[in-house]
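[step 3/7] fold_predict: job queued, chain A
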Amino acid sequence: MPGVRAAILDFQRNFSSQQPGAVLDGRDIGTVVCPDAQVKIFVTASPEIRAHRRWLELNNSGVEVSEAQILEDVRERDRRDAERAASPMKPAADAYLLDTSDLSIEAAFGAAVAIIDKAMG
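[step 4/7] structure written:
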């Protein structure tokens, strides 16, 4: 929703510029919200892995849903977000790509910290 995105952009930028800094998550953070961020990490995983993780999360909380339906939803959201005119989802040219498909949450966190440490010197 372009109107909502525009309405929160200044808030996001102001929030991210406060000391000591911030970690922001979103599909246009590195390209639109914080294009001058010191470190940008584009976190991804295969649609199948993301759908399975979401299915496990919902299943563990008692929600019955088809993993196939979640996969369809993930793919549709990715398509919609990549093709939208306002702030399309794409990695920034200077972003580090972190594919978490084969990583545990602990390993993904460690990989992100390593990227940040290396980038910050």
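[step 5/7] annotate
DSSP finds five helices and two strands in the chain.
Residues 2-120 form a domain with the Rossmann fold fold (CATH 3.40.50.300).
exit 0
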